[in-house]
Amino acid sequence: MSEKLKIKISIANRVYPLTIAPNQEEGLRKAAKNIEAMISQFEQSYSVQDKQDVLAMCALQFATQVEQKLLDNKYADEAVSLKLEALNALLDAHLDSERS
Protein backbone atom coordinates (compact mmCIF):
# COMPACT_ATOMS: atom_id res chain seq x y z
CA MET A 1 0.00 0.00 0.00
CA SER A 2 1.28 3.46 -0.90
CA GLU A 3 2.35 5.87 1.81
CA LYS A 4 0.09 8.81 2.54
CA LEU A 5 1.21 12.39 2.17
CA LYS A 6 0.24 15.18 4.56
CA ILE A 7 -0.32 18.52 2.86
CA LYS A 8 -2.02 21.80 3.65
CA ILE A 9 -4.36 23.44 1.15
CA SER A 10 -5.43 27.05 1.54
CA ILE A 11 -8.87 28.09 0.31
CA ALA A 12 -10.56 31.40 1.13
CA ASN A 13 -7.94 32.30 3.75
CA ARG A 14 -8.42 29.00 5.58
CA VAL A 15 -5.90 26.19 5.75
CA TYR A 16 -7.08 22.63 5.40
CA PRO A 17 -4.72 19.82 6.40
CA LEU A 18 -5.22 16.75 4.26
CA THR A 19 -3.81 13.25 4.18
CA ILE A 20 -3.74 12.03 0.59
CA ALA A 21 -2.14 9.58 -1.78
CA PRO A 22 0.93 11.17 -3.40
CA ASN A 23 -0.62 10.91 -6.87
CA GLN A 24 -3.48 13.21 -5.77
CA GLU A 25 -1.30 16.14 -4.75
CA GLU A 26 -0.98 17.84 -8.12
CA GLY A 27 -4.71 17.65 -8.81
CA LEU A 28 -5.62 18.99 -5.36
CA ARG A 29 -3.18 21.88 -5.62
CA LYS A 30 -4.46 22.80 -9.08
CA ALA A 31 -8.06 22.60 -7.87
CA ALA A 32 -7.28 24.86 -4.90
CA LYS A 33 -5.55 27.31 -7.22
CA ASN A 34 -8.58 27.33 -9.53
CA ILE A 35 -10.91 27.90 -6.58
CA GLU A 36 -8.76 30.80 -5.35
CA ALA A 37 -8.77 32.35 -8.84
CA MET A 38 -12.54 32.02 -9.07
CA ILE A 39 -12.98 33.52 -5.59
CA SER A 40 -10.88 36.48 -6.63
CA GLN A 41 -12.85 36.87 -9.86
CA PHE A 42 -16.21 36.79 -8.08
CA GLU A 43 -15.05 39.23 -5.40
CA GLN A 44 -13.88 41.70 -8.05
CA SER A 45 -16.85 41.30 -10.38
CA TYR A 46 -19.65 41.31 -7.82
CA SER A 47 -18.23 43.18 -4.81
CA VAL A 48 -19.11 40.24 -2.57
CA GLN A 49 -17.70 40.51 0.94
CA ASP A 50 -19.04 37.33 2.52
CA LYS A 51 -16.74 34.38 1.81
CA GLN A 52 -19.62 31.93 2.22
CA ASP A 53 -21.50 33.62 -0.64
CA VAL A 54 -18.39 33.55 -2.81
CA LEU A 55 -17.76 29.89 -2.03
CA ALA A 56 -21.39 29.04 -2.82
CA MET A 57 -21.03 30.82 -6.17
CA CYS A 58 -17.81 28.89 -6.85
CA ALA A 59 -19.49 25.59 -5.97
CA LEU A 60 -22.37 26.41 -8.31
CA GLN A 61 -19.96 27.35 -11.10
CA PHE A 62 -17.94 24.14 -10.77
CA ALA A 63 -21.05 21.96 -10.44
CA THR A 64 -22.53 23.58 -13.54
CA GLN A 65 -19.34 22.89 -15.50
CA VAL A 66 -19.41 19.22 -14.46
CA GLU A 67 -23.09 18.83 -15.33
CA GLN A 68 -22.62 20.56 -18.68
CA LYS A 69 -19.71 18.27 -19.55
CA LEU A 70 -21.84 15.23 -18.65
CA LEU A 71 -24.65 16.49 -20.88
CA ASP A 72 -22.23 17.28 -23.71
CA ASN A 73 -20.71 13.80 -23.44
CA LYS A 74 -24.17 12.21 -23.40
CA TYR A 75 -25.17 14.05 -26.58
CA ALA A 76 -21.83 13.21 -28.22
CA ASP A 77 -22.24 9.54 -27.27
CA GLU A 78 -25.76 9.52 -28.72
CA ALA A 79 -24.54 11.14 -31.95
CA VAL A 80 -21.71 8.62 -32.28
CA SER A 81 -24.12 5.75 -31.63
CA LEU A 82 -26.48 7.00 -34.33
CA LYS A 83 -23.62 7.32 -36.82
CA LEU A 84 -22.34 3.85 -35.97
CA GLU A 85 -25.83 2.40 -36.40
CA ALA A 86 -26.15 4.10 -39.79
CA LEU A 87 -22.72 2.83 -40.84
CA ASN A 88 -23.60 -0.66 -39.65
CA ALA A 89 -26.83 -0.55 -41.66
CA LEU A 90 -24.88 0.50 -44.76
CA LEU A 91 -22.41 -2.33 -44.26
CA ASP A 92 -25.22 -4.84 -43.73
CA ALA A 93 -26.96 -3.62 -46.89
CA HIS A 94 -23.72 -3.88 -48.87
CA LEU A 95 -22.98 -7.38 -47.54
CA ASP A 96 -26.55 -8.48 -48.30
CA SER A 97 -26.24 -7.19 -51.87
CA GLU A 98 -22.92 -9.02 -52.27
CA ARG A 99 -24.50 -12.31 -51.14
CA SER A 100 -27.38 -12.00 -53.60
UniProtKB/TrEMBL annotation:
<dbReference type="Pfam" id="PF05164">
    <property type="entry name" value="ZapA"/>
</dbReference>
<keyword id="KW-0131">Cell cycle</keyword>
<dbReference type="GO" id="GO:0051301">
    <property type="term" value="P:cell division"/>
</dbReference>
<dbReference type="InterPro" id="IPR007838">
    <property type="entry name" value="Cell_div_ZapA-like"/>
</dbReference>
<dbReference type="InterPro" id="IPR036192">
    <property type="entry name" value="Cell_div_ZapA-like_sf"/>
</dbReference>
<keyword id="KW-0132">Cell division</keyword>
<protein>
    <submittedName>
        <fullName>Cell division protein ZapA</fullName>
    </submittedName>
</protein>
